[in-house]
Amino acid sequence: MNVIKVHDKQFRPFIPYEKIEDEVKRMAWEINNDLEGKTPLFLSVLNGSFMFAADLLKNITLDSEISFVKLASYSGTESTQLVRQLIGFDEDIYGRTVVVVEDIIDSGLTMERVLEQLKDMGAHEIKVATLLFKPEAFSRDYEIHYKGFDIGNEFIIGYGLDYNRQGRNLKDIYIIEE
């Protein structure tokens, strides 16, 4: 992994795929144990979580389903603090165990909106799984059940995360060089 340029920014290696893969397997093991005997619906928040969701589900041994919702709250490297729903919920959530799969939780605003909607739709049990968590930025009051890596407030790309729509295809995670 070398320093790369995406648009006008430089990014250096941060988390190699091998470490990501190990963490995803650990999280899947936790979910498999916690939800044994249930048939959860995994709800992947697009676009960023597509790689994480795919790798996570490869390691889930439970009978399960997956669906997708597409939300947007970033412009460039900054959160807009506005959550736009681009593709909505199309599953019957009532009485279900739902695991919301997110790539990264920083302020927590996007996830808060998703959780509110799922509760309004009658979900029986809601679990949150995120690969990346920014504890310094988190300002909401809900539980994150399955966390991968705690990171700082730096901007990152790769493994599904982008900078102005580029960099999602990178296998490893990179951090911005200031």
Task: Provide a concise account of the structure shown.
22% of the residues lie in helices and 37% in strands. With 178 residues, the chain is an alpha/beta fold.
Q: Describe the main β-sheet briefly.
A: 6 strands, mixed
Inertia-based shape: globular
Distance from N terminus to C terminus (CA atoms, Å) equals 18 Å
Helix content percent band: 10-25%
Number of strands: 10
Could you name the CATH topology? Rossmann fold
Entry keywords:
Rossmann fold; 178 residues; alpha/beta; 6-stranded mixed sheet; 4-stranded antiparallel sheet
Question: How is the topology of this model organized?
Answer:
Layout: E1 4-6, E2 9-15, H1 17-34, E3 41-46, H2 50-58, E4 65-75, E5 78-87, E6 97-105, H3 109-120, E7 125-133, E8 146-150, E9 156-157, E10 173-176
Parallel strand pairs: 3-4, 3-6, 6-7, 7-8
Antiparallel strand pairs: 1-2, 2-10, 4-5, 9-10
Helix pairs in contact: 1-2
Give structural notes.
The chain has 178 residues and is α/β, with parallel strands linked by helices. The protein has a single domain, classed as Rossmann fold (3-Layer(aba) Sandwich), CATH 3.40.50.2020. Helices cover 22% and strands 37% of the residues. The chain has 3 helices and 10 strands. The strands form 2 sheets. It has a 6-stranded mixed sheet with strand order 5-4-3-6-7-8, sandwiched between helices. Strand 1 and strand 2 form a beta hairpin. The longest helix is centred in the N-terminal third of the chain and has 18 residues. The chain is globular. The relative contact order is 0.22.
